[in-house]
Amino acid sequence: MAQRRKSPEELRSHRWYGVADLRAFGHRSRTAQMGYSRDDYAGKPVIAIINTWSEINPCHTHFRQRAEEVKRGVWQSGGFPIEMPAISLSEPFQKPTTMLYRNLLALETEELLRSYPVDGAVLMGGCDKTTPALLMGAISMNLPAIFVPAGPMLRGQWRGKALGSGSDSWKYWDELRAGRIDRDAWNEIEDGIARSPGHCMTMGTASTMTSMAEVLGLSLPGAASIPAADSNHSRMAEASGRRIVDMVWEDLKPSDILTKEAFENAIVTSTALGGSTNSVVHIVAMARRAGINFDLERFDEIAAQVPMLANVRPSGKYLMEDFYYAGGLKGLLARLKDQLHGDCRTANGKTLGANIATAEVYDSDVIRPVADPVYPAGSLAVLRGNLAPNGAVIKPSAATPKLLNHAGPAVVFEDYNDMSARIDSDDLDVTADSVLVLRSAGPLGGPGMPEWGMLPIPKKLLKTGVKDMVRVSDARMSGTSYGTCVLHVAPESFIGGPLALVQNGDIIALDVAKRRIDLRVDEDELARRRAAWKTPAPRYTRGWGALFAQHVTQADKGCDFDFLEAGAATADPEIH
Ligand code: FES
Protein backbone atom coordinates (compact mmCIF):
# COMPACT_ATOMS: atom_id res chain seq x y z
CA MET A 1 0.00 0.00 0.00
CA ALA A 2 1.32 3.43 -0.91
CA GLN A 3 2.54 5.52 2.01
CA ARG A 4 0.09 8.34 2.81
CA ARG A 5 1.84 11.66 2.66
CA LYS A 6 0.83 14.74 4.57
CA SER A 7 -0.58 17.71 2.73
CA PRO A 8 1.18 21.09 3.16
CA GLU A 9 -1.82 22.29 5.19
CA GLU A 10 -1.23 19.47 7.67
CA LEU A 11 2.31 20.62 8.43
CA ARG A 12 2.75 21.94 11.95
CA SER A 13 4.52 25.02 10.53
CA HIS A 14 1.41 25.86 8.49
CA ARG A 15 -0.04 27.31 11.69
CA TRP A 16 2.79 29.84 11.75
CA TYR A 17 3.23 30.50 8.05
CA GLY A 18 0.13 29.41 6.15
CA VAL A 19 -2.78 31.28 7.74
CA ALA A 20 -4.08 34.74 6.90
CA ASP A 21 -3.92 36.54 10.23
CA LEU A 22 -1.82 39.19 11.88
CA ARG A 23 0.45 36.69 13.65
CA ALA A 24 1.27 34.89 10.41
CA PHE A 25 1.98 38.28 8.81
CA GLY A 26 4.58 38.78 11.55
CA HIS A 27 6.15 35.35 10.99
CA ARG A 28 6.37 35.88 7.24
CA SER A 29 7.63 39.45 7.40
CA ARG A 30 10.30 38.48 9.91
CA THR A 31 11.36 35.55 7.73
CA ALA A 32 11.62 38.01 4.84
CA GLN A 33 13.78 40.15 7.11
CA MET A 34 16.23 37.23 7.25
CA GLY A 35 16.48 37.30 3.47
CA TYR A 36 14.14 34.46 2.55
CA SER A 37 11.39 34.78 -0.03
CA ARG A 38 8.06 32.98 0.30
CA ASP A 39 9.18 30.42 -2.27
CA ASP A 40 11.88 29.30 0.15
CA TYR A 41 9.45 28.06 2.77
CA ALA A 42 5.80 28.22 1.65
CA GLY A 43 4.20 24.78 1.93
CA LYS A 44 7.54 23.16 2.79
CA PRO A 45 8.53 21.20 5.90
CA VAL A 46 10.51 23.39 8.28
CA ILE A 47 13.49 21.39 9.51
CA ALA A 48 15.18 22.43 12.75
CA ILE A 49 18.87 21.53 12.82
CA ILE A 50 19.67 21.31 16.51
CA ASN A 51 23.41 21.90 16.51
CA THR A 52 25.56 21.34 19.59
CA TRP A 53 28.61 22.99 18.00
CA SER A 54 30.67 25.10 20.36
CA GLU A 55 34.20 26.45 20.51
CA ILE A 56 34.57 24.65 23.83
CA ASN A 57 33.67 21.26 22.37
CA PRO A 58 36.57 19.65 20.45
CA CYS A 59 34.42 16.65 19.47
CA HIS A 60 32.05 18.88 17.48
CA THR A 61 34.44 21.29 15.75
CA HIS A 62 33.28 20.07 12.32
CA PHE A 63 29.61 20.65 13.08
CA ARG A 64 29.54 24.14 11.54
CA GLN A 65 30.42 22.61 8.19
CA ARG A 66 28.24 19.55 8.74
CA ALA A 67 25.23 21.78 9.45
CA GLU A 68 25.76 23.36 6.03
CA GLU A 69 25.84 19.90 4.48
CA VAL A 70 22.63 18.95 6.28
CA LYS A 71 21.02 22.14 4.96
CA ARG A 72 22.14 21.26 1.42
CA GLY A 73 20.25 17.97 1.77
CA VAL A 74 17.15 19.65 3.21
CA TRP A 75 17.04 22.15 0.31
CA GLN A 76 17.54 19.33 -2.22
CA SER A 77 14.47 17.54 -0.86
CA GLY A 78 12.28 20.62 -0.80
CA GLY A 79 12.47 21.48 2.89
CA PHE A 80 13.30 24.72 4.67
CA PRO A 81 16.28 24.31 7.07
CA ILE A 82 16.71 26.42 10.18
CA GLU A 83 19.78 25.90 12.33
CA MET A 84 19.22 26.28 16.06
CA PRO A 85 22.17 26.13 18.46
CA ALA A 86 21.73 24.22 21.70
CA ILE A 87 23.96 23.86 24.75
CA SER A 88 27.05 21.80 23.96
CA LEU A 89 27.93 19.33 26.69
CA SER A 90 31.70 19.17 26.33
CA GLU A 91 32.97 16.14 28.19
CA PRO A 92 36.56 17.29 28.69
CA PHE A 93 35.69 20.72 30.07
CA GLN A 94 32.36 20.80 31.86
CA LYS A 95 32.52 20.52 35.67
CA PRO A 96 31.53 18.77 37.81
CA THR A 97 30.23 16.57 34.99
CA THR A 98 28.26 16.84 31.75
CA MET A 99 25.76 14.45 33.31
CA LEU A 100 24.55 17.32 35.50
CA TYR A 101 23.41 18.98 32.27
CA ARG A 102 22.12 16.05 30.16
CA ASN A 103 18.56 16.77 31.23
CA LEU A 104 19.05 20.48 30.50
CA LEU A 105 19.95 19.76 26.86
CA ALA A 106 17.04 17.31 26.68
CA LEU A 107 14.69 19.97 28.01
CA GLU A 108 16.12 22.61 25.68
CA THR A 109 15.77 20.32 22.67
CA GLU A 110 12.17 19.52 23.48
CA GLU A 111 11.20 23.14 24.02
CA LEU A 112 13.06 24.42 20.94
CA LEU A 113 11.07 21.97 18.87
CA ARG A 114 7.81 22.78 20.64
CA SER A 115 7.95 26.55 20.67
CA TYR A 116 9.08 27.20 17.07
CA PRO A 117 7.45 26.38 13.72
CA VAL A 118 9.19 23.03 13.36
CA ASP A 119 7.98 20.02 11.38
CA GLY A 120 11.02 17.77 11.75
CA ALA A 121 14.44 17.82 13.39
CA VAL A 122 18.01 16.91 12.59
CA LEU A 123 19.84 16.32 15.86
CA MET A 124 23.60 16.90 15.78
CA GLY A 125 25.52 15.38 18.67
CA GLY A 126 28.04 12.75 19.62
CA CYS A 127 30.14 13.86 22.57
CA ASP A 128 28.93 11.57 25.35
CA LYS A 129 25.76 13.00 26.90
CA THR A 130 24.76 15.06 23.85
CA THR A 131 23.40 11.93 22.15
CA PRO A 132 21.01 10.72 24.86
CA ALA A 133 20.05 14.31 25.68
CA LEU A 134 19.06 15.18 22.10
CA LEU A 135 17.22 11.89 21.70
CA MET A 136 15.37 12.24 25.01
CA GLY A 137 14.12 15.69 24.02
CA ALA A 138 13.13 14.51 20.55
CA ILE A 139 11.35 11.44 21.95
CA SER A 140 9.28 13.62 24.26
CA MET A 141 8.38 16.08 21.50
CA ASN A 142 7.74 13.22 19.07
CA LEU A 143 8.23 15.07 15.78
CA PRO A 144 10.01 13.24 12.95
CA ALA A 145 13.70 13.34 13.89
CA ILE A 146 16.98 11.99 12.60
CA PHE A 147 20.28 11.90 14.46
CA VAL A 148 23.55 12.94 12.79
CA PRO A 149 26.40 11.49 14.86
CA ALA A 150 29.66 13.44 15.17
CA GLY A 151 31.70 10.37 14.27
CA PRO A 152 34.87 9.19 16.00
CA MET A 153 38.15 11.07 15.67
CA LEU A 154 41.12 9.42 13.96
CA ARG A 155 43.38 7.07 15.90
CA GLY A 156 45.87 8.72 18.25
CA GLN A 157 49.55 8.20 17.46
CA TRP A 158 52.67 8.18 19.64
CA ARG A 159 56.07 6.75 18.75
CA GLY A 160 54.56 4.24 16.36
CA LYS A 161 51.80 3.18 18.76
CA ALA A 162 48.08 3.80 18.32
CA LEU A 163 46.62 5.76 21.23
CA GLY A 164 43.00 5.51 22.36
CA SER A 165 41.02 8.36 23.93
CA GLY A 166 40.71 8.06 27.66
CA SER A 167 41.98 4.49 27.95
CA ASP A 168 45.57 5.39 27.09
CA SER A 169 45.41 8.56 29.19
CA TRP A 170 44.69 6.46 32.29
CA LYS A 171 47.23 3.84 31.27
CA TYR A 172 50.14 6.22 30.66
CA TRP A 173 49.24 8.41 33.65
CA ASP A 174 49.77 5.32 35.80
CA GLU A 175 53.04 4.64 33.92
CA LEU A 176 54.16 8.20 34.67
CA ARG A 177 53.18 7.92 38.35
CA ALA A 178 55.03 4.63 38.59
CA GLY A 179 58.13 6.20 36.96
CA ARG A 180 58.06 3.95 33.88
CA ILE A 181 57.80 6.87 31.40
CA ASP A 182 59.19 10.40 31.76
CA ARG A 183 57.63 13.86 31.36
CA ASP A 184 58.84 14.24 27.77
CA ALA A 185 57.04 11.08 26.75
CA TRP A 186 53.92 12.23 28.62
CA ASN A 187 53.98 15.58 26.78
CA GLU A 188 54.29 13.79 23.42
CA ILE A 189 51.27 11.67 24.31
CA GLU A 190 49.36 14.87 25.13
CA ASP A 191 50.03 16.13 21.60
CA GLY A 192 49.28 12.85 19.83
CA ILE A 193 46.20 11.41 21.48
CA ALA A 194 43.54 13.68 19.94
CA ARG A 195 44.43 14.76 16.41
CA SER A 196 41.23 15.36 14.44
CA PRO A 197 37.64 16.49 14.94
CA GLY A 198 35.27 13.85 16.26
CA HIS A 199 34.36 12.17 19.50
CA CYS A 200 36.48 9.71 21.50
CA MET A 201 37.54 6.84 19.25
CA THR A 202 37.53 4.10 21.85
CA MET A 203 34.29 2.24 22.65
CA GLY A 204 33.48 4.91 25.20
CA THR A 205 30.13 6.46 25.90
CA ALA A 206 30.19 8.48 22.67
CA SER A 207 30.79 5.52 20.32
CA THR A 208 28.37 3.41 22.32
CA MET A 209 25.56 5.95 22.31
CA THR A 210 25.86 6.95 18.64
CA SER A 211 25.69 3.23 17.86
CA MET A 212 22.59 3.03 20.08
CA ALA A 213 20.99 5.86 18.09
CA GLU A 214 21.65 3.94 14.87
CA VAL A 215 20.43 0.54 16.06
CA LEU A 216 17.35 2.13 17.61
CA GLY A 217 16.57 3.33 14.10
CA LEU A 218 17.11 7.05 14.60
CA SER A 219 20.13 7.49 12.26
CA LEU A 220 20.73 6.42 8.70
CA PRO A 221 22.23 2.92 8.51
CA GLY A 222 26.00 3.00 8.78
CA ALA A 223 26.11 6.56 10.11
CA ALA A 224 27.54 5.94 13.58
CA SER A 225 30.83 4.35 12.56
CA ILE A 226 32.05 6.88 9.97
CA PRO A 227 35.10 8.78 11.25
CA ALA A 228 34.43 12.51 11.54
CA ALA A 229 37.27 13.37 9.17
CA ASP A 230 36.13 10.98 6.40
CA SER A 231 34.38 12.55 3.40
CA ASN A 232 31.67 9.89 3.79
CA HIS A 233 30.73 11.76 6.93
CA SER A 234 29.82 14.87 4.94
CA ARG A 235 27.74 12.79 2.55
CA MET A 236 25.98 11.10 5.47
CA ALA A 237 25.10 14.55 6.86
CA GLU A 238 23.70 15.63 3.48
CA ALA A 239 21.73 12.37 3.11
CA SER A 240 20.26 12.85 6.59
CA GLY A 241 19.09 16.32 5.54
CA ARG A 242 17.46 14.86 2.46
CA ARG A 243 15.79 12.06 4.38
CA ILE A 244 14.25 14.13 7.20
CA VAL A 245 12.08 16.00 4.70
CA ASP A 246 10.53 12.75 3.53
CA MET A 247 10.16 11.59 7.13
CA VAL A 248 8.00 14.67 7.73
CA TRP A 249 5.78 13.96 4.72
CA GLU A 250 5.53 10.31 5.85
CA ASP A 251 4.93 11.40 9.46
CA LEU A 252 7.54 8.88 10.65
CA LYS A 253 7.96 9.82 14.30
CA PRO A 254 10.11 8.45 17.17
CA SER A 255 6.98 6.75 18.58
CA ASP A 256 6.69 4.76 15.32
CA ILE A 257 10.30 3.58 15.68
CA LEU A 258 11.00 3.20 19.39
CA THR A 259 9.29 0.00 20.43
CA LYS A 260 10.29 -2.29 23.29
CA GLU A 261 11.94 -4.50 20.65
CA ALA A 262 14.01 -1.58 19.36
CA PHE A 263 15.33 -0.96 22.88
CA GLU A 264 16.10 -4.67 23.27
CA ASN A 265 18.10 -4.41 20.04
CA ALA A 266 20.01 -1.54 21.66
CA ILE A 267 20.87 -3.64 24.71
CA VAL A 268 21.98 -6.57 22.52
CA THR A 269 24.17 -4.25 20.49
CA SER A 270 25.68 -2.46 23.46
CA THR A 271 26.67 -5.84 24.90
CA ALA A 272 28.22 -7.01 21.63
CA LEU A 273 30.14 -3.75 21.38
CA GLY A 274 31.49 -4.06 24.94
CA GLY A 275 29.81 -0.70 25.30
CA SER A 276 30.04 1.85 28.06
CA THR A 277 28.24 1.13 31.33
CA ASN A 278 26.81 4.63 30.93
CA SER A 279 24.57 3.24 28.21
CA VAL A 280 22.55 1.46 30.92
CA VAL A 281 21.55 4.77 32.51
CA HIS A 282 20.85 6.42 29.15
CA ILE A 283 18.90 3.52 27.63
CA VAL A 284 16.71 3.34 30.74
CA ALA A 285 16.10 7.10 30.53
CA MET A 286 15.33 7.09 26.79
CA ALA A 287 13.02 4.10 27.13
CA ARG A 288 11.13 5.72 30.00
CA ARG A 289 10.67 8.81 27.82
CA ALA A 290 9.11 6.47 25.27
CA GLY A 291 6.86 4.98 27.94
CA ILE A 292 8.79 1.71 28.23
CA ASN A 293 10.16 0.52 31.58
CA PHE A 294 13.25 -1.69 31.71
CA ASP A 295 14.35 -3.33 34.93
CA LEU A 296 18.11 -3.52 35.28
CA GLU A 297 17.70 -7.30 35.29
CA ARG A 298 16.62 -7.17 31.63
CA PHE A 299 20.10 -5.84 30.78
CA ASP A 300 21.64 -8.73 32.69
CA GLU A 301 19.39 -11.30 30.99
CA ILE A 302 20.26 -10.00 27.53
CA ALA A 303 23.95 -9.53 28.30
CA ALA A 304 24.09 -13.13 29.53
CA GLN A 305 23.16 -14.34 26.03
CA VAL A 306 25.22 -12.01 23.84
CA PRO A 307 28.98 -12.35 23.27
CA MET A 308 31.21 -9.33 22.84
CA LEU A 309 32.28 -9.14 19.20
CA ALA A 310 33.83 -5.67 18.83
CA ASN A 311 37.54 -5.93 19.53
CA VAL A 312 37.78 -2.26 20.45
CA ARG A 313 39.41 -0.63 23.49
CA PRO A 314 39.00 -0.45 26.41
CA SER A 315 37.82 -4.09 26.46
CA GLY A 316 39.55 -5.00 23.17
CA LYS A 317 42.54 -4.07 21.04
CA TYR A 318 41.55 -1.74 18.18
CA LEU A 319 39.97 1.69 17.73
CA MET A 320 36.84 3.01 16.01
CA GLU A 321 38.70 3.83 12.80
CA ASP A 322 39.64 0.15 12.50
CA PHE A 323 36.05 -0.81 13.36
CA TYR A 324 34.78 1.31 10.46
CA TYR A 325 37.18 -0.23 7.95
CA ALA A 326 36.23 -3.70 9.23
CA GLY A 327 32.57 -3.16 8.34
CA GLY A 328 31.39 -0.89 11.14
CA LEU A 329 28.19 -1.25 13.10
CA LYS A 330 26.33 -2.71 10.12
CA GLY A 331 28.89 -5.52 9.90
CA LEU A 332 28.59 -6.23 13.60
CA LEU A 333 24.78 -6.22 13.41
CA ALA A 334 24.90 -8.65 10.49
CA ARG A 335 26.81 -11.08 12.72
CA LEU A 336 24.21 -10.65 15.45
CA LYS A 337 21.16 -10.84 13.24
CA ASP A 338 19.77 -13.98 14.91
CA GLN A 339 19.60 -12.09 18.20
CA LEU A 340 18.02 -8.92 16.85
CA HIS A 341 14.41 -8.02 16.12
CA GLY A 342 14.91 -7.47 12.40
CA ASP A 343 11.42 -6.12 11.77
CA CYS A 344 11.91 -2.86 13.69
CA ARG A 345 11.36 0.26 11.57
CA THR A 346 14.18 2.73 11.09
CA ALA A 347 14.67 6.30 9.94
CA ASN A 348 15.21 5.41 6.28
CA GLY A 349 11.77 3.81 6.18
CA LYS A 350 13.13 0.27 5.96
CA THR A 351 13.49 -2.35 8.66
CA LEU A 352 16.68 -2.99 10.58
CA GLY A 353 16.83 -6.44 8.98
CA ALA A 354 16.66 -4.95 5.47
CA ASN A 355 19.35 -2.40 6.33
CA ILE A 356 21.86 -5.07 7.34
CA ALA A 357 20.86 -7.76 4.82
CA THR A 358 23.93 -7.26 2.64
CA ALA A 359 26.35 -5.99 5.31
CA GLU A 360 29.67 -7.78 5.64
CA VAL A 361 32.66 -7.93 7.93
CA TYR A 362 36.04 -7.36 6.28
CA ASP A 363 38.32 -8.05 9.24
CA SER A 364 37.29 -10.81 11.62
CA ASP A 365 39.86 -9.86 14.21
CA VAL A 366 38.29 -6.42 14.66
CA ILE A 367 34.68 -7.66 14.48
CA ARG A 368 34.82 -11.21 15.72
CA PRO A 369 32.49 -14.05 14.69
CA VAL A 370 29.96 -15.21 17.29
CA ALA A 371 31.92 -18.46 17.59
CA ASP A 372 35.16 -16.65 18.46
CA PRO A 373 34.20 -13.62 20.56
CA VAL A 374 36.48 -11.18 22.37
CA TYR A 375 34.60 -12.01 25.53
CA PRO A 376 31.92 -14.65 26.03
CA ALA A 377 28.39 -13.65 26.94
CA GLY A 378 28.12 -11.52 30.07
CA SER A 379 30.29 -8.47 29.36
CA LEU A 380 27.88 -6.51 31.58
CA ALA A 381 26.46 -7.73 34.87
CA VAL A 382 23.87 -6.28 37.22
CA LEU A 383 24.56 -6.81 40.91
CA ARG A 384 22.31 -6.71 43.94
CA GLY A 385 23.01 -7.24 47.62
CA ASN A 386 22.78 -5.42 50.92
CA LEU A 387 25.22 -2.82 49.59
CA ALA A 388 23.12 -2.11 46.48
CA PRO A 389 19.47 -3.02 47.12
CA ASN A 390 18.36 -1.18 43.96
CA GLY A 391 21.20 -2.44 41.86
CA ALA A 392 24.72 -1.73 40.65
CA VAL A 393 26.57 -2.59 37.46
CA ILE A 394 29.99 -3.98 36.58
CA LYS A 395 31.71 -4.55 33.25
CA PRO A 396 33.41 -7.94 33.63
CA SER A 397 34.97 -7.68 30.18
CA ALA A 398 37.06 -4.72 31.39
CA ALA A 399 37.84 -6.28 34.78
CA THR A 400 40.50 -8.67 36.12
CA PRO A 401 38.95 -12.17 36.12
CA LYS A 402 40.30 -13.24 39.52
CA LEU A 403 38.84 -10.14 41.19
CA LEU A 404 35.32 -10.97 40.04
CA ASN A 405 35.03 -13.14 43.14
CA HIS A 406 36.78 -11.24 45.91
CA ALA A 407 36.28 -10.20 49.53
CA GLY A 408 38.45 -7.57 51.16
CA PRO A 409 38.54 -4.78 53.74
CA ALA A 410 37.09 -1.42 52.75
CA VAL A 411 39.18 1.71 52.42
CA VAL A 412 36.60 4.49 52.44
CA PHE A 413 36.85 7.92 50.85
CA GLU A 414 34.12 10.37 51.86
CA ASP A 415 34.14 12.20 48.53
CA TYR A 416 36.30 12.94 45.51
CA ASN A 417 38.40 15.59 47.26
CA ASP A 418 39.09 13.25 50.18
CA MET A 419 40.19 10.60 47.70
CA SER A 420 42.43 13.01 45.76
CA ALA A 421 44.06 14.19 48.98
CA ARG A 422 44.84 10.72 50.36
CA ILE A 423 45.02 8.16 47.54
CA ASP A 424 48.75 8.60 46.93
CA SER A 425 49.73 9.04 50.58
CA ASP A 426 52.37 6.63 51.90
CA ASP A 427 50.27 6.46 55.10
CA LEU A 428 47.18 5.10 53.38
CA ASP A 429 46.30 1.79 55.04
CA VAL A 430 45.75 -0.21 51.88
CA THR A 431 46.83 -3.49 50.30
CA ALA A 432 46.12 -5.08 46.94
CA ASP A 433 43.26 -6.99 48.62
CA SER A 434 41.53 -3.84 49.87
CA VAL A 435 38.27 -2.66 48.34
CA LEU A 436 38.34 1.06 47.55
CA VAL A 437 35.05 2.80 48.32
CA LEU A 438 34.06 6.25 47.07
CA ARG A 439 31.00 8.00 48.52
CA SER A 440 29.10 11.14 47.48
CA ALA A 441 29.48 10.50 43.77
CA GLY A 442 25.88 9.68 42.83
CA PRO A 443 23.21 11.78 41.11
CA LEU A 444 22.75 14.10 44.13
CA GLY A 445 26.06 13.56 45.84
CA GLY A 446 28.44 14.21 42.93
CA PRO A 447 26.38 16.08 42.03
CA GLY A 448 25.43 14.70 38.64
CA MET A 449 26.95 11.25 39.12
CA PRO A 450 30.40 12.06 37.69
CA GLU A 451 32.68 9.50 36.04
CA TRP A 452 34.79 8.93 39.13
CA GLY A 453 34.10 5.20 39.42
CA MET A 454 37.53 4.10 38.21
CA LEU A 455 39.28 5.22 41.40
CA PRO A 456 43.04 5.44 40.82
CA ILE A 457 45.22 2.65 42.16
CA PRO A 458 47.14 4.03 45.18
CA LYS A 459 50.65 5.07 44.13
CA LYS A 460 52.39 2.85 46.64
CA LEU A 461 50.61 -0.20 45.18
CA LEU A 462 51.22 0.92 41.59
CA LYS A 463 54.95 0.89 42.29
CA THR A 464 54.71 -2.75 43.33
CA GLY A 465 53.00 -3.66 40.07
CA VAL A 466 49.33 -3.66 41.20
CA LYS A 467 47.21 -2.71 38.18
CA ASP A 468 43.67 -3.44 39.35
CA MET A 469 41.64 -3.58 42.55
CA VAL A 470 37.97 -3.90 43.42
CA ARG A 471 36.44 -0.44 43.57
CA VAL A 472 32.87 0.39 44.63
CA SER A 473 31.02 3.68 44.21
CA ASP A 474 27.73 5.33 43.34
CA ALA A 475 29.55 7.11 40.49
CA ARG A 476 29.56 6.27 36.81
CA MET A 477 32.73 5.33 34.94
CA SER A 478 33.90 6.69 31.63
CA GLY A 479 33.28 4.22 28.84
CA THR A 480 36.97 4.50 28.10
CA SER A 481 37.86 3.28 31.60
CA TYR A 482 38.57 -0.24 32.76
CA GLY A 483 39.12 -2.22 35.93
CA THR A 484 37.08 -4.15 38.49
CA CYS A 485 34.76 -1.26 39.26
CA VAL A 486 31.30 -1.68 40.78
CA LEU A 487 29.32 1.35 39.64
CA HIS A 488 25.91 3.08 39.89
CA VAL A 489 25.27 1.72 43.41
CA ALA A 490 21.65 2.57 44.20
CA PRO A 491 20.34 4.11 46.30
CA GLU A 492 23.31 6.46 46.50
CA SER A 493 25.23 7.29 49.67
CA PHE A 494 24.19 10.97 49.69
CA ILE A 495 20.58 10.01 50.43
CA GLY A 496 21.54 7.38 52.99
CA GLY A 497 21.97 4.31 50.78
CA PRO A 498 23.95 1.49 52.41
CA LEU A 499 27.19 2.78 50.88
CA ALA A 500 26.90 5.63 53.41
CA LEU A 501 27.23 3.12 56.25
CA VAL A 502 30.51 1.44 55.23
CA GLN A 503 33.46 1.95 57.58
CA ASN A 504 37.17 1.36 57.04
CA GLY A 505 37.99 -2.31 57.55
CA ASP A 506 34.47 -3.64 56.90
CA ILE A 507 34.58 -6.64 54.59
CA ILE A 508 32.98 -6.12 51.20
CA ALA A 509 32.30 -9.25 49.15
CA LEU A 510 31.92 -9.18 45.38
CA ASP A 511 30.67 -12.30 43.61
CA VAL A 512 29.86 -11.52 39.99
CA ALA A 513 28.86 -15.10 39.14
CA LYS A 514 26.15 -14.86 41.82
CA ARG A 515 25.44 -11.21 40.92
CA ARG A 516 26.08 -10.12 44.52
CA ILE A 517 27.75 -7.18 46.22
CA ASP A 518 27.50 -7.39 50.01
CA LEU A 519 28.73 -5.65 53.11
CA ARG A 520 29.57 -8.29 55.72
CA VAL A 521 28.36 -6.34 58.71
CA ASP A 522 25.49 -7.65 60.79
CA GLU A 523 22.10 -6.00 60.54
CA ASP A 524 22.06 -4.71 64.16
CA GLU A 525 25.29 -2.82 63.61
CA LEU A 526 24.02 -1.45 60.29
CA ALA A 527 20.82 -0.29 62.04
CA ARG A 528 22.93 1.56 64.64
CA ARG A 529 24.94 3.25 61.91
CA ARG A 530 21.79 4.12 59.99
CA ALA A 531 20.25 5.77 63.05
CA ALA A 532 23.41 7.87 63.54
CA TRP A 533 23.64 8.93 59.88
CA LYS A 534 22.91 12.59 59.16
CA THR A 535 21.50 13.95 55.89
CA PRO A 536 24.19 16.12 54.26
CA ALA A 537 23.46 19.75 53.37
CA PRO A 538 22.22 20.14 49.78
CA ARG A 539 24.91 20.90 47.21
CA TYR A 540 22.93 23.79 45.73
CA THR A 541 20.21 25.99 47.18
CA ARG A 542 19.30 27.86 44.00
CA GLY A 543 19.52 27.65 40.23
CA TRP A 544 19.84 24.63 37.97
CA GLY A 545 21.61 22.58 40.64
CA ALA A 546 18.69 23.01 43.06
CA LEU A 547 16.16 22.09 40.36
CA PHE A 548 18.29 19.08 39.46
CA ALA A 549 18.42 17.93 43.09
CA GLN A 550 14.67 18.27 43.49
CA HIS A 551 13.78 16.17 40.47
CA VAL A 552 16.59 13.79 39.45
CA THR A 553 15.86 10.07 39.78
CA GLN A 554 18.37 7.45 40.91
CA ALA A 555 20.66 5.53 38.54
CA ASP A 556 18.37 2.51 38.21
CA LYS A 557 15.64 4.83 36.88
CA GLY A 558 17.92 6.63 34.40
CA CYS A 559 18.67 9.89 36.29
CA ASP A 560 15.97 11.72 34.33
CA PHE A 561 13.79 14.36 35.95
CA ASP A 562 10.59 12.91 37.35
CA PHE A 563 8.48 15.51 35.51
CA LEU A 564 10.12 14.83 32.14
CA GLU A 565 9.44 11.12 31.95
CA ALA A 566 6.57 9.91 29.79
CA GLY A 567 3.20 11.11 30.96
CA ALA A 568 0.32 13.15 29.69
CA ALA A 569 1.04 14.87 26.37
CA THR A 570 2.27 18.47 26.62
CA ALA A 571 0.12 20.90 24.68
CA ASP A 572 1.52 22.74 21.68
CA PRO A 573 1.78 26.50 22.22
CA GLU A 574 -1.24 28.70 21.69
CA ILE A 575 -0.58 30.44 18.42
CA HIS A 576 -3.26 33.05 18.25
FE1 FES B 1 33.79 14.17 23.59
FE2 FES B 1 35.01 11.89 24.67
S1 FES B 1 35.44 14.00 25.01
S2 FES B 1 33.36 12.08 23.34
Describe the structure.
By secondary structure, the protein is α/β, with parallel strands linked by helices. The protein contains 21 helices and 14 strands. The strands form 4 sheets. Strands 12-11-10-9-13-14 form a 6-stranded mixed beta sheet. The protein has a 4-stranded parallel beta sheet with strand order 2-1-3-4, with helices on both faces. A two-stranded antiparallel ribbon has the order 5-6. Strand 5 (156-158) and strand 6 form a beta hairpin. Helix 5 (102-115) runs parallel beside helix 6 (130-141). The longest helix is centred in the middle third of the chain and has 20 residues, at 231-250. The mean pLDDT is 96. The structure holds FE2/S2 (inorganic) cluster (FES).
